[in-house]
Amino acid sequence: MLRPILAALPLLACLTHLQSAEPLKVLIVDGQNNHKWEITTPVLKHALESSGAFQVSVTTTPPKGAPADAWNAWQPKFAGYAAVVSNYNGEPWPAQVRSDFQSYVHAGGGFVSVHAANNSFPEWKEYNQMIGVGGWGGRNEVSGPWLYVKDGKLFRNTSAGSGGAHGPQHEFVVEIQNAEHPITRGLPARWLHCKDELYSRLRGPAENIEILATAKSDLTAENEPNLMVIQYGKGRVFHTTLGHADYSMLDRGFYETLQRGTEWVATGAVTVTAEIPADFPTAEKTSPVLLEGHPKQVPPVTKPAK
Questions:
Q1: 83-117 b/e (C-beta count within 10 Å ≥ 16 → b)
Q2: What range does the domain containing 129 cover?
């Protein structure tokens, strides 16, 4: 009887470590966005904290057009966090904040770019390297290639054209392209995502990038990337184009991939958030998250049979 007990000890030690581990400190940045950050930041916070893996703080920038004094007073301490999640799309940050953030990620800090955060800072070279590809803000072929996946292969289209587009919001199927990455391991190969904007024609330097999942665009008919990871220096970046609105984020697929992506950028592994929820969406049915007290609760949608 001794041998089975001894064999089980490493697993028990691992479980004990996970149960006793302190939550990872995460900082959400918001304050300006062409999307309703006042509504979506609380959903992001809940998505992370409900996993039990994270302790989340929020730093809010001055509003658009604020005086220099207000910006000078905004000095987030990125180094105190395991990961930074951007829900920001607005005016350029002060030079010192940009430098601090760049140094933080390059030295090994974790970064998560959510939806319109990839519209931000088209003139900031290092930021565009962090997110791999982005949209709008004057991005075009000079910014880098348009990425999409066809027949399982990554294409880099260098033809002329603007970066960033989407059609009307709708439910769409997310298709896993890399089932071996810790963020996507074990997830269904295809799952129906709640009503959202399906970004397409994203452009950028696209260096050190790996596409984890795509969705077939209603505009381009190509499999456009919506879950990506990027290496920037020693830092890890998780880039999700999902999450236009609160109803887009209140989706079990969004919750799970955000949790996994945030743990991965912070630690390089997915352990505490690895369990796949029983209500994860299928290829035929969405799985909205019911957030108590939230004004918009969306019923599940079933994809019509062909």
A1: bbbbbbbbbebbeebeebbbebbeeebbbbbbbbb
A2: 21-267
